[in-house]
Write a structure and sequence with these properties.
About 55% of the residues are buried. It is built from 21 helices and four strands. It has helices spanning about 10-25, 30-35, 40-45, 50-65, 70-75, 80, 100-130, 135-155, 175-195, 210-230, 235-245, 270-275, 285-290, 295-300, 325-330, 360-375, 385-400, 440-455, 460-470, 495-500, 505-510; strands spanning about 85-90, 260, 280, 355-360. Helix 7 (about 100-130) runs antiparallel to helix 8 and helix 16 runs antiparallel to helix 17. It has a two-stranded antiparallel ribbon.
């Protein structure tokens, strides 16, 4: 980058960041959330603009909630439980019984808008002012990725008006945001096509080390993800965007997987929070992995300390816990009799390897293409071919193998004998692609294997559960939420208390655009499957 060309309006940028933090990031722990000693400030970037690369790397890590407490209060205590990767074992954690704990949600919201969003904004603005087109294109792509996650959690959020120098920050509706996402990706892809050999943030890019060609594939793959996300609300646009993405080349090899690099100072958050002993494998995960005799079981999870603790007598030490356990049931520790995360995700002193943080994988892309092909779209292969490719890519990524797994007639198995769990399998679909089955049955197969391949990305897995209804889940033991029954799906996060205090008119206007009000049972704009 030619740093001499960077011209900033210092007052404008400082006001922007200050107003954003005050207007959007206020919580009871303002100091903890908004004064991270590692944060790259506007003044620091102005005094040494070459550190823009570091700001981009920080924006990547923060927007994926890399820091352990941010990850726990934004993902592990919400979407990880609601997509049923895990079940909580902590007596004081109510979110597994469908209670959205306000303090956690407030911290999650404040973390994004107080840390990630300002960095994303600064990097995009400064690269635009510098005339660094390729860098600006990548910054735009990352902005789309970061904000689609927030919108898919809450619905309308401050997006296009973020940093508007006003104490009132209007919300962008989901439909408006998705329209902007696709147009922004159009701009970015055009630029990246024109600069395929460019080096972009090579000193700070924690995903591709500055490889613009890989960022082009990521941008197209992100477009494909967003296209399938809107399939039920706007099928014609979904088809157009999906076919455009595949035509422009998407991620097809694990060599191009998007993972955020970790290190001693930027750990995979699971490596820290699993040591706190507050969650274990879910019963749904046990039913599916065990029934399929899935070789990923031993890399996803660790054997329960208590061994084969269920009365199913299957000799398997991999044990899941039914979601939604009552406080009484959790009063007796459930940790030893249920499976913790896999060896790689354990704390470093316990043999963990601090793996990189998954953002977007080749296996996910293959399953997205399989779903598109199932609808008759041009995805460069048949649904069966792409389904089986997704399975193989996931196996290769995790370094496992099993002869003819993709052709297996094995089905999910009973999960065990927890006191309130049914002994029936969670579903009856086999691994082998059922070409004679209904379109819906084949969709269930695709999404169930996609759910496995996405692990441990519960943020994305919960979105796909809401969109498709898959994988099928066991009914929770209980729900404390009057709007969401134990056998229902949590549909969205409700808005945080701080927004009603600091940005009340805007948040109330946003609520007016929601079909069912500010409730966890209200479906998002794209959540339209009958």
């Amino acid at each position: 980058m030619n740093t001499n060309t960077i011209k900033m309006n210092s007052i404008h940028q400082l006001m922007m960041v200050s107003l954003v933090i005050l207007g959007l990031g206020c919580t009871n722990d303002f100091e903890e959330v908004n004064t991270n000693p590692r944060a790259l400030t506007e003044d620091f970037l102005r005094s040494n603009p070459s550190n823009l690369e570091l700001a981009f790397g920080q924006a990547q890590y923060y927007s994926m909630n890399g820091l352990h407490w941010r990850f726990q209060i934004s993902q592990n205590l919400f979407s990880d439980l609601w997509c049923q990767y895990y079940a909580t074992t902590a007596v004081g954690f109510d979110s597994d019984r469908y209670t959205q704990v306000g303090r956690w949600a407030d911290l999650a919201w404040g973390s994004f808008y107080g840390q990630a969003a300002p960095q994303i904004k600064l990097v995009e603005n400064l690269t635009a002012e510098a005339g660094e087109d390729a860098l600006n294109a990548v910054a735009k792509v990352w902005r789309v990725h970061a904000y689609h996650r927030m919108i898919d959690y809450w619905g309308p959020v401050p997006y296009t008006e973020f940093g508007n120098l006003s104490l009132e920050v209007p919300y962008t509706t989901e439909q408006e945001a998705y329209t902007d996402f696709f147009s922004t990706l159009d701009e970015a892809v055009k630029t990246l096509k024109e600069n395929p050999e460019a080096r972009v943030f090579p000193g700070g890019d924690r995903i591709y080390g500055g490889d613009a060609g890989k960022w082009l594939k990521f941008a197209n793959s992100l477009r494909l993800r967003l296209a399938l996300r809107i399939r039920y609300v706007n099928p014609s646009l979904a088809k157009t965007e999906a076919e455009k993405a595949v035509s422009d080349k998407v991620i097809e090899s694990n060599d191009d997987n998007a993972f955020i690099a970790t290190d001693a100072n930027n750990l995979n958050p699971l490596a820290t929070i699993t040591n706190w002993g507050e969650f274990r494998m879910s019963a749904t995960m046990e039913s599916i992995l065990k029934g399929y005799e899935d070789p990923r079981t031993s890399v996803f999870f660790s054997p329960a300390k208590g061994g084969d603790s269920d009365t199913d007598a299957d000799d398997s030490p991999y044990e899941g816990l039914l979601n939604g356990q009552t406080k009484v049931a959790l009063g007796t520790s459930q940790n030893d009799n249920h499976s913790d995360v896999g060896p790689a995700f354990l704390p470093l002193p316990k043999g963990g390897t601090n793996p990189a943080i998954g953002v977007l994988r080749a296996s996910e892309v293959a399953f997205l293409r399989a779903e598109g092909a199932l609808q008759g779209w041009n995805m460069g292969g048949t649904a069966k071919e792409l389904y089986e490719k997704g399975i193989q890519l996931s196996f290769d990524e995790w370094g496992v193998s099993k002869a003819d797994y993709a052709g297996s007639t094995a089905k999910p198995a009973p999960a065990g004998a927890d006191t309130v769990i049914t002994v029936k399998p969670v579903t009856d679909i086999p691994v082998a692609y059922d070409e004679s089955g209904t379109v819906e049955r084949r969709l269930e197969q695709i999404i169930t294997q996609k759910w496995l391949a996405l692990y441990p990305n519960g943020w994305e897995a919960w979105a796909e559960l809401r969109r498709t209804g898959y994988p099928k889940q066991y009914k929770r033991a209980s729900s404390d939420n009057p709007d969401v029954a134990a056998n229902a799906i949590m549909r969205r996060m409700v808005y945080t208390a701080s927004e009603f205090t600091t940005n009340g008119d805007a948040v109330n206007a946003a609520i007016g655009t929601l079909s069912g009000g500010d409730k966890n049972s209200t479906k998002l704009w794209w959540d339209k499957k009958e």
